[in-house]
Amino acid sequence: MYEAVADLPLTVEDWTLSGRERDTTSGFVRATTTFVLRGAGETGRGEDVTYETEDHEILQREGVDLPTGETTFGEYSRRLDEFDLFPEPPEREVFRHYRRWAVESAALDLALRQAGRTLGDVIDRTYDPVRFVVSTRLGDPPTADRVDELLAYDPDIELKLDPTPAWDDDLIADVAARDRVRILDLKGQYEGTEVDQDADPSFYDRVVSAFPEAVIEDPDLTAETRPVFDGEEDRVSWDAPIESRQDIVDLPFEPSWCNIKPSRFGSVESLFGAVEYCEEHDIRMYGGGQFELGIGRDHIQALASLCYPETPNDVAPAGYNEPDLPAGLPSSPLAVEGGGDGITPVER
User: Fold this and answer.
1) Which of 129, 286, 292, 338 is deepest in the core (most CB within 10 A)?
2) 207-225: pLDDT as tens digits
3) Of 315, 248, 309, whose CA–CA distance to 283 is shortest?
């Protein structure tokens, strides 16, 4: 796939930055920055999903240097190695990947629009309707209220939940009885974040047993928790550790599932290499979101549409992440509309 896009001609004349903010159901205000690249009468966009608001404020205040001129997409990507995209060091090093993805996706979007082509056309894949799940937490103290709200909105909705040890047996049984949970994210692979969750074999056993069909994402496999997954390895998925093809190779056992978050990979080349590795090794993929507020959400939906449309993709329309659900949100599967060029074939 990367060879198919690397030789696309690309002209970058200038760029601008724009910021967004929105409340989320996870109890924080999400800030992102959109990179808008222009050239040859066309515009390409990509969204920086760095989580620290201060990093966005510094970027939007101080700006950043990017390559310009006539080149190819592949050469533009190589030139980005020479540019520091953070005016000040980021709060976390992984944010460098997030911002690099914003610039690369904007450049790829621009190159495709300058060529008058879609990403699907270039990599010879079709935009299929995307099955999606809605990711949410259940509050503090946890209740099934948000689940009830989502099911009242759409009885056929599918869910990705972040269980915590605070879930008691009654809540687990109540949520499991709805039979709408497709992924449980244990958050066991995060370090130094607000969502870190310690390995707890009793907690793991309760949720793994209660949701026998759900994919279990990011357990912390220790001597105490590993036995919980004996015979359940084909349900285990990985997210936070996956930033390259090599990270998939290095997992503790051959995976059956991977959560593909494009921003984690930084470059288009790294992302496409990981996708193709999963396809070659029969590893099922589903798309993951980072609370994108704009074009970044469109891009992860388009990539899911092209590469893994039928799995439980955590790429629901952004409105599902708002505390108050707006009217008229689309149901799954999500159609990726046609009629334009670029990564997402939508006229702008």
Assistant:
1) 286
2) 999 999 999 999 999 999 9
3) 248
